[in-house]
Amino acid sequence: MASPQMDARARHAAWLHDLRNAANGVGIALEMIELLLQHDDRPAVARSIARAQRGCAHLLALVRASIDGETDEAS
After folding, report:
1. How far apart are CA 51 and CA 47, in angstroms?
2. Distance between CA 62 and CA 22 in Å, rounded?
């Protein structure tokens, strides 16, 4: 059976992986906006902005969940 410390490390590693994926998704969406603006594709720009906003919301949720989890563990 895994120790609580190993479980915590695995959870933290999974959280970092999710955080990195979300940040990469936001970065890709922002790069797409720049390219799409060069081609004057306004509908696609709007979709990429929406994708970046969803990615930012996901990043924020991950960080908030981590903070809430730390607060719960401390009490």
Report:
1. 6
2. 9
